[in-house]
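Amino Acid Chain and Its Fold in Token Form
===========================================
Scope: a single protein chain, as residues and as a discrete description of its fold.
Amino acid sequence: labelled as such and written in the usual single-letter residue code.
Position: the record begins directly beneath this header, with no further notes in between.
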Amino acid sequence: MVERRPWLDRLAHAVLIAGGAVIAFPLYVAFVASSQSSEQMHRVPMSLWPGTEFLANFKTVLLGAGDTTGSTAMGHMLWVTLVMALGVAWGKIAISMLSAYAIVYFRFPLRQTCFWLIFVTLMLPVEVRISPTYKIVADLGLLNSYGGLILPLIASATATFLFRQFFMTVPDELVEAARMDGAGPLRFLKDVLVPLSATNIAALFVIQFIYGWNQYLWPLLVTTDEAMYPIALGLKRSIGAGGDAAIEWQLVMATAVLTMVPPALVVLAMQRWFVKGLVDSEK
């Protein structure tokens, strides 16, 4: 019998609250700073109460009217980043599911060798193979395009491995029943495996969406046109675009808040599916 000790419960809650406060305080400061005017931002110490310029600052950032945000509106950069993140997430899921399906359900020479070759690419992230990847993208004329931003990032050995492990747990009786019903390979994938993989897809989508949203190094190399800048480049540019002029930190903080909102919404909207896809042991 486990003895309940109330003081341990109170201590655990106190530690959790303290940890949450430490994590949330910088986010709160960024939110407060995004609502203040330039004069309020330069006061020492800075006020920790929200200001009155919240809507004005976000309008300036989204429409690109501020000097430090440059000529391209952050609203357009958010759109570019959203397209890139969705393309990377769904591209990784589609390619990984098809490759795992082929490895598990098709018999062909060197099948396991192909899987291990895919798995070995975990040791070769984009940063390691960035020079040859850039040359290929440049030779194909994909610089300053959505294809150049998305295609080199959509292969995922981790997702392939996860789908392979799940497909291997699908009972053989289910495969035989689908075959007896006249289901071909594509119909079996679409009508049986995809619905069964819904929670796995949701978990991978959240992870890969955030991965695509936070990309900085690769877009920095393949984009020279401001119209194709993602929000990570826009945030860095908003800090350094002022030159010798004073940086408008209230606009920088507004951009930072905008950068955090979409990934947070995705996590909140798919939290239940995300957790279920990671811990579900009934499959």
User: Anything to note?
Assistant: The longest helix spans residues 74-105. Residues 74-279 form a domain with the MetI-like fold fold (CATH 1.10.3720.10). The radius of gyration is 24 Å.
